[in-house]
C-alpha cells in the first residue's frame, strides 16, 4: 500500500520495479516512487526526498535511460501533469504543454491543425517534459527552434521559475538540464511557438529523397517521418524487438577540422556534416560499423538492431550490466581504431559515475 505524504496527499510507493517503465526494459527497483499530477505535488516530492536525505531522479517515459540492475536507492519522481493550452498571436501559435503529455501526441495535435515547427520530430517516444533536456532532434529539426520557455521547479531556490529559450543553453543533444545544471530543475511545462499554416521543414536527405520535387504538406511529412522511422525501428512497437532500445545509444561525435583531416587521410572518405562553427560532426553509426559492430551483432542477450547501427537492443532477458558492457566495448574499439570517444546519449542511472 502506498503512503500518503503531506497536504498534497502525494502517493509514495516503495520498491517499484523500474524496468517496465523504460523502453530498454532493464534495471532494478526504485526504493521510493511517486507520480506528481500537479505542481504542488512536485514540491511535495522534493520535500519528501529532502526530509529523508534521498537522491531524487525525475523519470519521464523512460525512453532515454539505462537503469542499473541494483535499481535506484532514492526517490524516482514521474511528472504526470497533463494538459495543453493554446493561444493564437497572429500567425504564431503559442502552445503550452504540461510535462506529462506524450510528445508524439503533441506533434500529431499540432500537425492536424497545420501548425508547423515540430513535424519532423514525429514518432519520438517519451514525454513533453523531457524534450528540452537533450534538445530532442531528428530529420533536420530540434525542439530548441520552437521552444519559447520552460517552466520548472528550481530545486536550489525551492520555487517555480520560467526559463527563456536562451537560458536553457541549447546545443546538439544538450541543454543546461543535462549539463551544467543537471538535477537542478524539474520541468513542469514547456511553451512552444509554432507557425500557423507554415511550410514543413524538408532539409534531411531521407525526406528530400522521399518527396523528390513535390512540396508535401505537414501531414505528409509526419507520415513520411513515421514510415522512415519504422523502417529503422525508431518507433516503439511492442511487436518489433529491434525497438527495445533507447534509440541512438551514442551521440554523433563532433571533432575539429584538423582532427577530421587526419582521420580522412588515414581512412579515406568519412561521412560527416560540416558545422557552422567550423567543426565536423561524424556519424557514430559509421564508426561503430567500421569498428566491427555490424547491424544484427549479438552478444548473449544484448545486440545491435538489425535496422540501425546506433541502437543497442535488449534481445530478451538482458541485464543493465550486459548493456553497459557492450557500450564499453563499442567505445573502446571505436577509440582504438579512430581515436574518437563516443559519448552515450541516454542517462545512466544508479551506476558509478565513472562509467560514462
Ligand atoms: C526508439 C527510440 C527512438 C528515439 N529517437 C530519438 C530521436 O530521433 N531524437 C532524439 O533526440 N531522441 C530520441 N530518442 C530518445 C528519447 O526518446 C528522447 O530523449 C525523449 O525526449 C526522452 O523522453 P522520456 O520522457 O522518455 O525521458 P526519460 O527517458 O524518462 O528521461 C530522460 C532524461 O530526461 C530527464 N527528464 C525527463 N522528464 C523530466 C522532467 N519533467 N523534468 C526534468 N527532467 C526530466 C530525466 O531525468 C532524464 O535525465 C529515442 C528513443 C527511442 C527508444
Automatic annotation (TrEMBL):
Function summary: Cell wall formation.
Compartments where found: Cytoplasm
Keyword terms of this UniProt record: Cell cycle, Cell division, Cell shape, Cell wall biogenesis/degradation, Cytoplasm, FAD, Flavoprotein, NADP, Oxidoreductase, Peptidoglycan synthesis
Enzyme class: oxidoreductase
Main subcellular location: cytoplasm
UniProt GO molecular function: FAD binding; UDP-N-acetylmuramate dehydrogenase activity
Gene3D superfamilies the UniProt entry points to: 3.30.465.10, UDP-N-acetylenolpyruvoylglucosamine reductase, C-terminal domain (3.90.78.10), Uridine Diphospho-n-acetylenolpyruvylglucosamine Reductase, domain 2 (3.30.43.10)
GO cellular component: cytosol
Record organism: Pyrinomonas methylaliphatogenes
Pathways involved: Cell wall biogenesis; peptidoglycan biosynthesis
Active site: 173, 248 (proton donor), 345
Cofactor(s) this protein cannot do without: FAD
GO biological process: cell division; cell wall organization; peptidoglycan biosynthetic process; regulation of cell shape
Protein name: UDP-N-acetylenolpyruvoylglucosamine reductase
EC number: 1.3.1.98
Amino acid at each position: 500500500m502506498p503512503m500518503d505524504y503531506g497536504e498534497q496527499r502525494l502517493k509514495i510507493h516503495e520498491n517499484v520495479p523500474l524496468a517496465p517503465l523504460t523502453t530498454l526494459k532493464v534495471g532494478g527497483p526504485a526504493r521510493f516512487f511517486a507520480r506528481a499530477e500537479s505542481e504542488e505535488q512536485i514540491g511535495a516530492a522534493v520535500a519528501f526526498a529532502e526530509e529523508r536525505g534521498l537522491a531524487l531522479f525525475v523519470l519521464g517515459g523512460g525512453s532515454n535511460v539505462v537503469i542499473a540492475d541494483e535499481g535506484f536507492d532514492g526517490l524516482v519522481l514521474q511528472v504526470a501533469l497533463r494538459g495543453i493550452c493554446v493561444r493564437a498571436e497572429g500567425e504564431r501559435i503559442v502552445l503550452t504543454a504540461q510535462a506529462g503529455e506524450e510528445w508524439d501526441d503533441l506533434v500529431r495535435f499540432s500537425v492536424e491543425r497545420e501548425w508547423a515547427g515540430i513535424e519532423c520530430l514525429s514518432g519520438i517516444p517519451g514525454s513533453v517534459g523531457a524534450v528540452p533536456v537533450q534538445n530532442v532532434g531528428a530529420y533536420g529539426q530540434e525542439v530548441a527552434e520552437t521552444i519559447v520557455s520552460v517552466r520548472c521547479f528550481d530545486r536550489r531556490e525551492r520555487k517555480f521559475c520560467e526559463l527563456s529559450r536562451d537560458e536553457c543553453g541549447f546545443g546538439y543533444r544538450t541543454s543546461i538540464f543535462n549539463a551544467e545544471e543537471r538535477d537542478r530543475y524539474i520541468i513542469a511545462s514547456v511553451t512552444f511557438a509554432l507557425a500557423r499554416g507554415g511550410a514543413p521543414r524538408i532539409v534531411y536527405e531521407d525526406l528530400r529523397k522521399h518527396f523528390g520535387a513535390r512540396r508535401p504538406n505537414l501531414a505528409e511529412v509526419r507520415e513520411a517521418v513515421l514510415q522512415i522511422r519504422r523502417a529503422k525501428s525508431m518507433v516503439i512497437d511492442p511487436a518489433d524487438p529491434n525497438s527495445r532500445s533507447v534509440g541512438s545509444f551514442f551521440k554523433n561525435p563532433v571533432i575539429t577540422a584538423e582532427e577530421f583531416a587526419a582521420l580522412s587521410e588515414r581512412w579515406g572518405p568519412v561521412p560527416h556534416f560540416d558545422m557552422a562553427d567550423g567543426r565536423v560532426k561524424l556519424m557514430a553509426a559509421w564508426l561503430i560499423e567500421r569498428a566491427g559492430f555490424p547491424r544484427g551483432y549479438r552478444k548473449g542477450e544484448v545486440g545491435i538492431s538489425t535496422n540501425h547501427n546506433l541502437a543497442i537492443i535488449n534481445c530478451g532477458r538482458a541485464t543493465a550490466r550486459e548493456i553497459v558492457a557492450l557500450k564499453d566495448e563499442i567505445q573502446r574499439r571505436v577509440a582504438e581504431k579512430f581515436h574518437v570517444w563516443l559519448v552515450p546519449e541516454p542517462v545512466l542511472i544508479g551506476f558509478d559515475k565513472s562509467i560514462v
